[in-house]
Amino acid sequence: MEFRINFRPLRLEDASFINKLRQEEDMEQLIGGAKRPVAYERDLKWVEQLILGDSQISIYFAITPSGSDEIVGYTSISEIDYRNGTCFWSGIKIDATKAGKGWGSEVALKILKFVFEELRMERCKAECLEHHEVALKMMLKVGYKQEGLMRNTVYKNGIHNNQWLLSVIREEYLELKQRFSL
User: Fold this and answer.
1) To the nearest 5 percent, what fractions of the chain are helix, strand and coil?
2) Model confidence at 118: pLDDT above 90
């Protein structure tokens, strides 16, 4: 598979783009985290902490189109547990103009390639809100398996929401690697 995207480290100038993404109400309604207003200065500090913090349990990537350095989204892996070989694909935030064009699937596959080939993980889990059908469909398409429905895990939009728990294990990734020519 030839990817239309690249991953690069976050840069301080990406904070402006990230802050704009946070203002997109439609996107905020669908992600698992709590919505709260965030000032540009806070996002700038957050990006700086990600850049300089040298975390051993999370990795953030700026998503760029191939051949460009311009950020169009970001994604992350967290809860990295080297002892047990597990991690959590924390999700993706991408420019709305890229939605519905396969960019999310490419990010998910590139994350799996990184998780299993670079980090040498055994299992990668992911979660999505029960009613976020687009995210669920995309994760199933790239090979995640549903493990179950976690009840009332996220308070969002004035109610407690259920979330799907999904995962890919190494054995499944090796099949996906062949299927998608990773």
Assistant:
1) 35, 30, 30
2) yes
